[in-house]
From TrEMBL:
It is found in: Nucleus. One of its GO terms (molecular function) is RNA helicase activity. SUPFAM superfamilies: P-loop containing nucleoside triphosphate hydrolases. This is Uncharacterized protein. GO terms for cellular component: nucleus. Keywords: ATP-binding, Helicase, Hydrolase, Nucleotide-binding, Nucleus. SMART domains: DEXDc, DSHCT, HELICc. The lineage of its organism: Eukaryota, Metazoa, Ecdysozoa, Arthropoda, Hexapoda. InterPro entries: Beta-barrel_MTR4 (IPR025696), DEAD/DEAH_box_helicase_dom (IPR011545), Helicase_ATP-bd (IPR014001), Helicase_C-like (IPR001650), MTR4-like_stalk (IPR048392), P-loop_NTPase (IPR027417), RNA-DNA_Helicase (IPR050699), SKI2-like (IPR016438).
Amino acid sequence: MDIVPAIQDLDVKPIFDKSRLKGPQIKIHIVEALELCLHEVAIPPEVVYKPLVRPKKLLREYKFILDPFQKEAIMCIENDESVLVSAHTSSGKTVVGEYAITKSLNLKQRVIYTTPIKALSNQKYREFQEEFGDVGLITGDVTINPTAGCLIMTTEILRNMLYRGSEIIREVSWVIFDEIHYMRDKERGVVWEETLILLPDNVHYVFLSATIPNARQFAEWVAHIHSQPCHVVYTDFRPTPLEHYIFPVGGDCLHMVVNDKGEFNDRNFDLAMKLISNPGLVKKTENSQFRGKKNEGKDSSCLKIVRMVMEKNLAPAIVFSFSKKDCEIYAMQIAKLDFNTSEEKKLVDEIFHNAMDVLSEEDKMLPQVENVLPLLRRGIGIHHGGLLPILKETIEVLFSEGLIKALFATETFAMGLNMPAKTVIFTSVKKFDGREMRSITSGEYIQMSGRAGRRGLDDRGTVILMMEEMFSPQTGKDLFLGKADPLNSAFHLSYNMILNLIRVDDINPEYLLDRSFFQFQNHANIPTFKKDLDEVEAKIDAISIKHEPILMSYQNLIDKMKELKREYLTFIHNPNNLQQFLRAGRLVNLSIPVKGKDKPIEFGWAMLLNFKQVMPKKGSNSSEPKLTIDVLLNMDPNSTKEQPLPCPEDSQGKMTVISMPHTNITELSSVVVVLPRDLRGPDNMATAANAYKEVQDRFKGQPPLLDPVKNMRIKDERFVDLDKMVKNLTKRMEDHKANEIPELKSLMKQLDAKLELVDRKNNLEKEINNCYSLLHMEELKCRKRVLRRLEFCTETDVITLKGRVACEISSADELLLTEMLLAGLFNDLSPHGSVALLSSFVCEEKAPSNLKIPEELTQPLREIKELAKRILNVSMEAKLEGISQDYLESVKPFLAEAIVAWCNGVTFLEVCKITDTFEGNIIRCLRRLEELLRQLVQAAKTLGNQDLEIKFNEGIRLIKRDIVFAASLYL
């Protein structure tokens, strides 16, 4: 009998070196701050901490008293040190950014202010132009005064400047990142990480963010990658406190669930939930804070709330709805109400007509333009991505002037534009996030509800949530009082990023991976893993088990048996081998899987009642029929049918009939019990229970088994070998020394617990190893393999002409477009056809039912599919994860017909008749198309193809006209 040594004596080489167990070595110093804010500083190990000097006189005067967090952040700027300001929406973070601009301009240094969206860039340009004068704007669409001291740009533009080694970067002393929490955006968040890593170490930073719980971690990362101190000034203080109410759909009153001190009212919450579960309970109660007019016929809940808000003088209100169509439906429901005086109506007319003056007469007759004015005159607005950009901006101007009292908006309105209201209303707590319908997170709720309460105008803000589904009190507290979402990295690799990094000297993709926030966050887990590892090792050392070597040897046999049984049971479970033996009353041994756990429950013996065949569903991998069995179990009375547990020894069980898959059977007994035909009556069930007990007593829980080879006649050669091995192993287990140990069962339980800890220890060591290995490294190797095989770079990572062309393309599929350029797909196309074909790469719409594709594009689209197939095959050969046949469907020529019409000079009104897409979506597609064409002009230059350059420039000229490219009102 082979005995293995005890666990602690095993001579196993450690899979990692414990001396490496350190996270990123950043020191944290807590600065004594003014009240209502927290001030910490992250300091790299090589930097000596110097206390900040509070400035005696500021560079600019303020008409208001600065908040403590503003004073703390300005002190950091005065001392030339980077700072992250994390504070609630509308609390005045921009003051800090403006101070950095003032300091830079005073010292004749350049400063860059980056924003996540063009609309916010335009808005900031307007604000800063009035204040500082020496301001420029670069958004891709527009370039104004690029030599200015203060440049406002989108983060993508700054990233591109860094890749191209722009001269501007050398002159920059400060970079201000507005809305830095955008870094967690799945699609675009990676741009912030690239930009921050590529910026030089001598630049200082101001980061403006909504409240993020891990602000310190972000500052540590900045200190780590740029070897400079980074301060965190964090405040949870909200200048205008909020009150939160629930409005049960179908009810007629509001229930205050959180007061302006942030206290949760359980009584009101429970009452609101009762009304949601039983709307018939609606009656006047002292807990109902506000009350609308009693059930007014079929008026919607939204109409009731808006009326209530207006009656209680809580306007202006933003009504958040999670779909564009819903915004319009709700707005139309309240269209008969009128919130504006005749004076305000005149002002609305004046602002609206002045804004629309830039449009042609035909564009002024667009349905969206004509339909929105009657609503705006009544003080009702709509704001979503499907609106014409000029209308969106007009509505923003009207809202900021107080001429819109109820604005129906999607959540994008809360993401960048600083436009607070007195009240925020949610029409639902559910949203579709692109994959599924889910409840909004507390972070999303905080972001949107933060728009309530205008500083200096309201003593408190009001937030109203329309609810039609019940929440548990804990879920309610998590939503209303939960924390903001943490700032987690959304880092991912793209071919454009890899090629640009290969092209730039002194830097490579591995360098970027190593310095990413993603990698840093992973390193930050090391101390936690180290603590867990120490605890697990201490627990393992504390467990001393008698006869451990013998028990370990026995355990090895058990593990071998489990391994053999896995393959063995595939033959037993074959319906052809099993079906004829599934007789009513036969004893079967069951092993029942547990959801979310590796180990199943070894249930023991049960009585089979019957079985039925279940044919596989269409499209499933298996063509074999599956079996469902009904069994009579003696289960623990405290367990459930969903998860039955065996009845403990020496106690009375509960006989229950349960259906389950036939794969839960591990053994069949030759014993067949005679059972009553109908088990529904208590007497018959008692008879079955007695029969079961009798069999258990007679065979002492070990009834004789059907021999699979002799009795069940399974003749497969592999199975016969397996059967011999199982019988041999069973004999070895019966003869093992462990059976001589009297307390074997309890000792094996102790050994099980110890082995679980050893597994946990091994997993922690693997996790720590993963923290040190470069994440995404495997993906980078695969992507580089693809680039080499497609000849975008050489085996020695030298970029080819093809690669340099792909470097120019960042707003669509760079590989496929480069292949198209080199394959000459555009050579025979007209400029109109080229533009329409390229629209397939920027269209985000779903396929319409009446899709028409221009004849000129049918052949190129076939060729694109062939090129895409080649890229897909190479990617699959390179074992790149996450790529599938869906890649072939990523080209969407759904707006091609409309684009051709637009290029042919038809009016926008005519284009809208061709497709049922929202007007704003068509314009977004055309603007993204113009951006892609600009990149392709550069790509054609790199390629040295003048004809293509002329063609793409002509494409830009064809689409860049009228309402689609109407100048922003902010410029």
